[in-house]
Specification:
Number of domains: 1
Number of helices: 13
Strand content: 5-15%
Helix content: 40-55%
Length: 246
């Protein structure tokens, strides 16, 4: 079931349902990609038709940001729950571990993907880490060839939005991967460089506030959360919300 929030068609799933669907995609012998939009994505997609099309063309569109969940409520089409990209990624690692599958990590600063991979293998010894590459590259085709040569089943693409989403849409089917996920800064979390908010903050929908407390320089990005809520309220007020659920 899809729910439209400010032009983006989200899958209305719980974390468990998303994990089940992700496992199904990972089992299929063809390429799929997953996106995890937050309020910044929604604002960027308004200005960038290509980005909007890439998001809506994904096999799974999961609401990563609490601002997306609040916007859905304002619009009168509430989502079941927030499904953070890091949690979906963790569920897919568990699935890949059972399958004894192959993982490739693409993105972040030099050395981060390697450390993230090392830590992932400590927790999921059944996974084969078939390759890593940092996100500081200019030749997209050269990186594509490296990824394809590694023959991954699961590919984490952590280049930041909209670069990672456009990369998956453009090159993903040529990588040989079954499933690619755009995950922003998640490799830094897996590598231990960035700490997630305590669980009580997460449950209250205040993970953004915890990040802001730890990284005050993010204030400009966090300011986009209320802007999205204002846009949702404006759309509801003028009766312009046509997405609903289907």
């Amino acid at each position: 079931m899809k729910t439209e929030i400010l032009g983006i068609q989200f899958d209305d799933l719980t974390r468990q349902e998303a994990a089940q669907r992700g496992a199904e995609l990972l089992a299929e012998d063809r390429f799929h990609y997953v996106v995890t939009p937050n309020p910044e994505f929604l604002l960027a997609a308004e200005r960038d038709p290509e980005f909007r099309a890439v998001l809506n063309g994904a096999d799974l569109v999961l609401p990563d940001g609490i601002g997306v969940v609040y916007s859905a409520k304002i619009l009168g089409t509430p989502l079941k729950e927030r499904v953070p990209g890091i949690e979906f990624a963790t569920d897919m690692l568990a699935c890949l571990n059972e399958r004894k599958g192959r993982l490739y990590l693409l993105g972040a600063k030099p050395g981060v993907a390697q450390e993230a991979g090392r830590r992932i293998l400590e927790q999921y010894p059944g996974i084969v880490l078939c390759g890593t590459h940092d996100g500081y590259f200019k030749d997209e085709e050269a990186v594509l060839l490296e990824v394809a040569a590694a023959q991954p089943d699961l590919l984490f693409v952590c280049l930041g939005a909209p670069k990672q989403e456009k990369w998956m849409a453009r090159w993903g089917r040529h990588t040989g991967a079954r499933l690619a996920i755009g995950l922003g800064g998640c490799l830094d979390v897996f590598a231990g460089n960035v700490e997630r908010a305590p669980e009580r903050w997460q449950k209250l929908g205040l993970e953004w506030a915890y990040r802001l407390k730890k990284e005050p320089r993010r204030i400009g990005r966090m300011a986009k959360l209320p802007l999205v809520l204002v846009k949702a309220a404006g759309e509801r007020a003028k009766g312009g919300h046509k997405g609903g659920k289907d």
